Amino acid sequence: QPCVLIFEDLHWIDAETEAFLDVLSESVATARLLLLVNYRPEYQHGWGSKTYYTQLRLDPLGKEEAQELLTALLGEEVSAEREALERLILEKTEGNPFFMEELVQTLAEEGVLSGERGRYRLERSPSELHIPATVQGVLAARIDRLPEEEKGLLQTLAVIGKEFPFGLIRGVAEQGEEDLYRGLSHLQAAEFVYEQPAFPEPEYTFKHALTQEVAYHSLLGERRGMLHERTAQGIEELYRDALDAYYSELAHHYGRTENTPKAVAYLCLSGEQAVQRSAYVEAIGQLSRGVELVATLPETRERAQQELFLQLTLGESLIATQGFTAPEPEQAYVRARDLCEEVGDTPQLFQALQGLFGVHLIRAEHDKAGELAEQLLHIARGTRDPAHLLIAPLAMGVASLWRGGFSKAREHLEEVIRRYDPQEHRTHEYLFASMDSGVSALAYLSWTLLPLGYPDQALRRSREALALARELSHPFSEAFALFTASRVHCLRGDSQAALEVAEAVIALASEHGFPFWGGLGTSMRAAALADLGQLQEGIAGMRPAVEALRAMGSVLASLSMLAFLAEAHGEAVQADEGLAVVAEALELVTKTGQRDAEAWVHRVKGELILARSPPDQAKAEASFHKALDVARQQSAKSLELRAAMSLARLWQKQGKKEQARKLLADIYGWFTEGFDTGDLKDAKALLEELGG
Is 507 exposed, middle or buried (0-12, 13-18, 19+ CB in 10 A)? Predict the structure, then answer.
């Protein structure tokens, strides 16, 4: 039988429940689980893209349904005055069932109605009644009519939260146990709260979130703050052996008191905890509040250390949600670096520089990124810290990759993989640009092995990266691994696999709110479609994707996409459009020093020149030679093979068959793997044509 779980008013749930719901939402697709939730319009969730998600709007009751509910509440009595009362209630409540229930309860408490629910009698004429215009007004009036002790207890409960165990109530309320039970019993009878069976003591919950809200705001600010502090102290005492499960609640309560140091301390803990479970939006809220509060504390070394932690953790969360190059992450890391200088010798300087390295790298500011990588390596050699010794060579490898230093990149990345232990290094301190270091090293190594001429090893490393990311249950790392896998499949000539993986990137990025990976996934989807022959759709998708990446500041990712786009224009017999894209890409190479796709772009330029009418064979040949020279300088055998094929085809047309055969045979003979890939199959076929 299917399992049905119901959650009411999601706007008010705590962080732990929301994380649990995220896990449950994944189970909906694979298990016989029906998850029913309701929430207010302002509540934001990430399920909208799911195929198994259906949204229904809950409107007020219709006229017939509202009348049916009202009859159930009031009873079957028929009279002109009763009909007038019903019209008045329906007019005021507009079919809101909770408003109707509260209004009937109010009329009973005021003596307008006598008897019991479902059997009420009208004691006064409806024309004499004053009915509040809103449900909040009804609730406020009901709360004001409570005896002073019960009203105070209800307000105390409102400060504690939507749900509250008896042990916590006992620690916060200023009443004896017998008085507490009596007061809770009266509040239950008045339908303000419900009791829920629990062991070893009962728990209670507000009937409706609005009841809690109105009771909370009926308190004076000073008393509210005092009760928040008592609640926080009660949680610390009651759950002292499992306090990590209550960091978010403690941050909430202390954040509404004058005890700012405690609030900041718990905001640090709850923010870090949210990052560890990839709840980045929640983390940003906690950490940003922490930054605001810490600024109000006296300027001491301890305050600087706390802000440093907040800024570093905030930078990581902002990268995950806004991308590497939004201004906010850079601001956080720059502030963290300045705080390191203020504090003095601090190990956090490495983390601040690492964050800035990621920002400058994605912007393709390779000189700055290279300098930062060197600084990281220098610090690592001095500290011998295990995390530093893992991340510094990773930064060096990535910086080398983008500048076309594929062999050097491979050395650094393989060093990281040798050092990496998934059990030892899966903690927060070993993250690289918000990603697991092992996943990053494997994914970047697969990227590096492709141009070096090892397509099978590239595919294997790509699969290892994805498997590790999933084993670690780290969505941000998984998004990167998926994107890299899509690119590897595409360049190996398996465009269908590239398309399927690109769509998985898009879905994961949408689910978790990763705009950077969403943009890259969209660009790879378009490239795969073009490779599958859907040229117009691919071209139409690639250009907006490139522009979207640039809008996010990601110059780095756009060079390869420009190469894909120029190639697609060539396949679509749009040589002039393709050459305009090539000019854009080569300007980027000159401006940034990014050279990972330089040989690729020069080869595509030659092909596009040949596609023009009339073709300029001399210029095309010069472009092919340039592609060969760059590829050879970079030891990029795969790029050299592609350039050699383009030049060999041109020489074949010119009657230089033997030169073409020798050129292609030399580079083809170097390969020891990847013979099922598109490039090597094409090279073999061309060699056979040339008599090789």
Answer: middle
Per the listing, tokens 């050879």 go with: 632
- Report pLDDT digits (tens) over 251-298: 999 999 999 999 999 999 999 998 888 788 889 999 999 999 999 999
The residue written with tokens 């298990």 in the block is 31
Identify the H or E element spanning 35: strand 33-37
Distance of CA 40 to the CA centre of its chain: 22
Strands 435-436 and 431-432: antiparallel
d(CA 312, CA 287): 10
Show the tokens assigned to 517.
């990976």
In terms of Cα–Cα distance, which of 505, 502, 488, 530 is closest to 678?
488
Phi, psi of 512 (to 5 degrees): -105, -5
| pLDDT single digits (tens) 13-54 | 444 455 555 555 555 544 555 666 666 554 556 655 555 567
Q: Could you tell me how far CA 65 lies from the centroid of its own chain?
A: 42
The pLDDT assigned to 463 comes to 97
Q: How far apart are the first and last CA of the chain?
A: 66
The 3 state secondary structure assigned to 221-234 is HHHHHHHHHHHHHH
CA dihedral 279, 281, 287, 288 (to 10 degrees): 180
Over 173-207, what HEC string results? Answer: CCCCHHHHHHHHHHHHHCCCEEEECCCCCCEEEEC
Q: Name, in order, each residue with C-beta under 8 angstroms of 227's C-beta and a sequence gap of 6 or more.
A: 155, 156, 159, 160, 172, 219
Q: What whole-number distance in Å separates Cα of residue 654 and Cα of residue 603?
A: 18
Q: Find out whether the peptide bond into 614 is cis, omega within 30 degrees of 0.
A: yes
Place of tokens 């002790």: 149
Q: Tokens 């117009």 appear where?
A: 536
Tokens standing for residue 568: 């697609």
Question: Residue 9: which residues within 8 A CB-CB, separation 6 or more?
Answer: 38, 39, 40, 208, 209
Tokens at 12, concatenated: 């008010």
By the 8 A CB rule, do 325 and 520 touch?
A: no
Is-contact 491 450, C-beta < 8 A? yes
Report pLDDT digits (tens) over 584-623.
Answer: 999 999 998 899 999 999 999 999 999 999 999 999 999 9
Pairing relationship of beta strands 33-37 and 3-7 according to DSSP bridges: parallel
Q: Which residues contact 406 (CB under 8 A, 6 or more apart)?
A: 400, 448, 451, 452, 596, 634, 635, 636
Task: Give residue 38's identity as a one-letter amino acid code.
Answer: N
Residue reference for tokens 């990496």: 420
* pTM, entire model: 0.65
pLDDT at 30: 47
Q: What are phi and psi of 75, to 5 degrees?
A: 110, -175
Which residues are paired to 6 by β-bridges? 36
Q: Return d(Cα 267, Cα 248) in angstroms, integer.
A: 7
Cα 599 from Cα 624, distance rounded (Å): 9
d(CA 485, CA 459): 7
